[in-house]
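Subject: Predicted fold for NAD(P)-dependent dehydrogenase (Short-subunit alcohol dehydrogenase family), 256 residues

User T.R. writes:
Posting the sequence so we have a shared reference for the thread.
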Amino acid sequence: MSTGRILSDLSSRTTIVVGASSGLGRGIATAFAEAGAPVVAVARTAAPLAELATATATIQPEVADAGDATVAADLLDRYEPEVVILVAGAGPHMRPLHQQTWETFSVNWHTDVRIAFHWLREALLTPLRPGSRVVVVSSGAAINRNGSPLSGGYAGAKATQRFITGYARDESRRAGLDITVTAVMPTMTPYGDVGRRGVRAYAARGGQTEEEYLKELGDLLTPEIAGSALVDLVRADPATTAPEYLLTAAGLQNLP
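User M.O. replies:
I've generated the structure tokens; pasting them so everyone works from the same file.
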């Protein structure tokens, strides 16, 4: 059982959000800032980060490639966060298997998995201070029995993110580091580049309009819902926190 502190007051809990420039990552960064946390927003594109920082005084922008092996160590050393949330990833090439090349098929392995690997590794090596939280935002595709047949290696990469999150959780426990490591798997949503690509591709494959496809999905996960759910997750007692969750429009759901 973890002895980490319950982070009900986030005002002194520096939070790094990797992939904060758009979509769910932007919603998560905004929610933590509104909850009082000092937020370090990391992304490769300067303009949306600057806009985000201008809108919220407690957000510090960091323009960096989170997949670079040196970036995680540098930012963890400089900011000494107690919360790290990994949302960043590449937009998959939306085509069926036979229309992929190995380069397009493997893009999420070389980006999403690489980011999770570097940041989880550094969180353990640094290590983050006892009571810290690391949340890896994977994808609902990781637990979909059919994967994601129009997005190349995306589902497999997201499943690997889920697996290595579990590996990091076990290593934290074995070493007595008291770092709570959680995987979160959002359902498909059009509120982000990856989701928009998916909606467009799967609607076309099914002979539907995007509106028809979205209607079939039902209530949609928004950046605001994602942000609120992760703030609640980080504030929760780690002793009651599940290792992984599905994230839907209704918030965090326990996996069956």
